[in-house]
Amino acid sequence: MSPSDSLPAFQAVLRSSKHIIAIAGAGLSAASGIPTFRGAGGMWRKYDAMSLATPQAFNKNPSLVWQFYHYRREKVFAATPNAAHYALASFTLPAIREAIAPGSTFTLITQNVDGLSDKALQAVMASAPADTELDQPLIEMHGRLLDVSCTSSECGHVELNAVSPICPALEGTDLQVEAGVLDPDIPVSNLPRCSQCGFLARPGVVWFGEIPLHQPTINRLVDDADLCLVVGTSSTVYPAASYASEVVEHGGKVAVFNLDRSSGDNEADFLFLGPSEETLPRALGTPDQPLVLP
Fold this sequence. Notes:
- The protein is of the alpha/beta class.
- The protein is built from 10 helices and 11 strands.
- The protein has helices at 7-16, 49-52, 55-60, 62-77, 83-91, 94-100, 116-126, 215-224, 243-249, 276-284, and strands at 19-24, 43-44, 47-48, 105-110, 138-140, 143-150, 158-160, 201-205, 227-231, 253-258, 270-273.
- The strands form 3 sheets. It has a 6-stranded parallel β-sheet with strand order 5-4-1-9-10-11, sandwiched between helices. It has a 3-stranded antiparallel β-sheet with strand order 7-6-8. A two-stranded antiparallel ribbon has the order 2-3.
- The protein is globular and about 60 Å long.
- The protein starts with 6 loop residues before the first helix and ends in a 10-residue tail after the last helix.
- InterPro entries: DHS-like_NAD/FAD-binding_dom, NAD-dep_sirtuin_deacylases, Sirtuin, Sirtuin_cat_small_dom_sf, Sirtuin_class_III, Ssirtuin_cat_dom.
């Protein structure tokens, strides 16, 4: 049976759900100008961008990988949350969610590393009553682009670094996108260093082949969920790609919000095609901007 696109039917399920999770992917941030690096847009300079997001690529050529992540960091600095980020952030507030799905819990599990979901959440919280408390509203399972991590196993220090550029040697390399431009070979000594021990630092994100963060907590949330919202993801990267199926297996419902059809639609109860910044606020019935305090 084909998934339904009925908003009233979805909202009836939403209203009766008690443990709601959302699994977000790159499509959530597309309207904010964050490249998805999948499909036709998967090239950075002359490289397959996905192949640079690995420990092996960093070990082989840390200069090239840091240039790629410097480019991505600069994109994040220039980006702001869109209406879909705010709709999800607003749904985390008990005062708003209680009117939509009484007595429910909600957690956003994002695969994105751009930090925009957290930025939206902070903006929404700033407009909430001072005594508002949230119980784990957001999990960033792949880390954040603005974090840096020491590569020394004896140190392992991780910290937020919002300096632009992160080091002088990377300045301007994000602009060298013309075809055929030679990649600067930046000495390792000039790449970002750990602020604690001085060892080579790496982007503080989870690369392909590494274990996502907060996995035990995510597994518990997936096991308990009776409604899973899949937002802006093609459901191809594991383990996140399996979460919706797991919810279905124990009797929960799945609603997909994507720009186009994908392999993850097969088990969905609901499918809403179109820009998530338009479909998600309408489906959830939540504000697409932070509320303005009087």
